[in-house]
Amino acid sequence: MRIGFLQFAPIFGNKEKNLELLVNTLKKTNPLPEVLVLPELAFTGYTFINKKEAVLLSE
């Protein structure tokens, strides 16, 4: 089984651009992995810049 890991810095809140980055990276990958491991919340870029932002966006 071929396993791939892709580490990148997602763009905060920009799902389309993050997905585009993944697709473009995979187009250059040969052979393709059977399983691809991505960072948590890789598409949404949902990371916090600081504690204040985390509190403001928390539920």
From TrEMBL:
The record's listing under InterPro entries reads: C-N_Hydrolase_sf (IPR036526)
Give the lineage. Answer: Bacteria, Bacteria division WOR-3
The superkingdom of the source organism is: Bacteria
- Name-wise, this protein is Acyltransferase
- Cite the entry's keywords alphabetically: Acyltransferase, Transferase
Q: Name one GO molecular function term.
A: acyltransferase activity
